[in-house]
Amino acid sequence: METLINGTKILVIFLSMGSLVPFLVWAERRTLALMQSRLGPNRTGPLGLLQILADLVKPLMKEDFAGQATHKGLFYLAPLLAIIPPALVFGAIPFSHPLILPSFEFLGYAFGPYTFYFQGFNLNVGVVFALGVSSLSAYALLIAGWSSGNKYSLLGALRAAAQTISYELALSLALVGLILVFNTLDFLEMVKIQSGPLTFSFFGSEKTIPFLPGWGIFYQPVGAFLLFISFLAESNRVPFDLPEAEGELVAGYHTEYGGIKLILFYIGEYAHIMVASALMVTFYFGGYTFYPFLTEDSLNGLFQARMGEWAGLLTSLALFITFLVKFFLFLFVFMWIRATLPRFRYDQLMDLGWKTLLPWAFGNAVVTAVVIFIFDFFKRGSFFG
Amino acid sequence: MDSLIFYFLSSVLIFSALRVVTHKNPVYGALYLACALVALAGIFFLLEAHFIAGVQLVVYAGAVIVLFVMVLMLFDLKAEKQLWKISPFRWASVAFVAGLTLGVTLLEGLLGSSSIGDLGFFSAKHIARLLFTKYVLAFEVLGVLLILIAVGVVALTRLEREDD
Predict the structure, then answer these.
(1) B135 to chain A nearest CA, in Å?
(2) What does DSSP assign to residue B10?
(3) Is pLDDT above 60 for B164?
(4) What is the ipTM of this complex?
(5) Fewer CB in 10 Å around end: N or C, chain B?
(6) Which positions in chain B touch A92 (Cβ < 8 Å)?
(7) pTM for this predicted structure
(8) Looking at the predicted structure, is the pLDDT value of residue A269 above 80?
């Protein structure tokens, strides 16, 4: 029974992620256009919404060719490998407060108390899992470029993979500071901590700022900035999209791909952006809560008074909508940056990753650790607890 | 259900590990190694060692093998592929090592220690505490080793360039 529920959850997450991508493509085209003083797709259907259908049907009807691919098996495997890692990470992120169902009777069977997590799977090492699985996305690039049988694809793939693994380092180190502050690797725990007011121990005494939520961005502003830039680079997104730029190396690792295989690559890229957005929200912006008004306690209190039994479900739904609002806000920021910034040259990109982001992330982790140690020292009164 | 997943993952692991050593193209070998490591991470997850599984994915499958694959893709591998084809001992060597492994496993199963038992739940905090108290020397020595490797690589490439 448990397996069935979890399996269905994973399927729903995967399918909803795939379905959100065409909508994101439309949103991106409209957003970019409006920022560039033009209109974007507005002829196919109202507001250009049928463009989503057109974008989906056209590649499906194209010829499925492998061209000069030297390794046909890997050539067909690479697009699949592009969409699986972000989908897995998406499954570990909590979208809402877990729903605790009391035991009830249905068709003669007694179902015990059950906690329904609004995630595909609840891991207590969520952060390490997310980092690990997203680093597997480098394989899709490499396999795609190498199996295409095209020199330029190979070069583009190697560049893209080098970029990916370089920015993974800055990503992990920027997260170290956050893990030090929150003292946990679990996504749900992090969101729970962020659903309270902003507290920190200041040279021994606990200070609380009651009107600000305890969001990660207040504890780790530098880390948040570094993480955001690293996510932009990880998902091959402008200004770091040299691997798939049209004018460089033809189109990089997906030069030889067409039709539905290319669409799978784009789904992978947009899935990466969705994962980046969801992770930014979960780590630094309170996840599905918004402290003074929209936490599980305040909403539970509000709904309990009126609805009684259904309070839990309504709380979870309201928190889910909070998450979605923040999630779409960050997706908009990604598109905004695409409309604004020019592309980096490859050596500028690698310099930024190794010579700027990595030292800053190191520094962030060290400074965070030192500050926490000093404040703990004052709280404890001795060097080792 | 758990045992089904275990049998599936272990068969993937064994098949991938076998293909690492029997495929004639080294790039495929590296990719099969990555597949084997992902299956191994799955088995670690089943054993409730979530942290080790995650770290396996991050470090081993996600960085080390990626670099292997990147380097291998830059080489002309005709010589390696040819070597695998002409060697008369290729299947014999694979069978020998496989037989050795099987023998050791069976022997250990018959005479070795009992099952792992219930180690309890090791979270990342427990592992960190152990690393920094009981095994701190090994930890620091490993750090020094990594720095040595980095310095050595830079020195080697500098030396090669100066030889031109």
Answers:
(1) 18
(2) H
(3) no
(4) 0.86
(5) C
(6) none
(7) 0.88
(8) yes
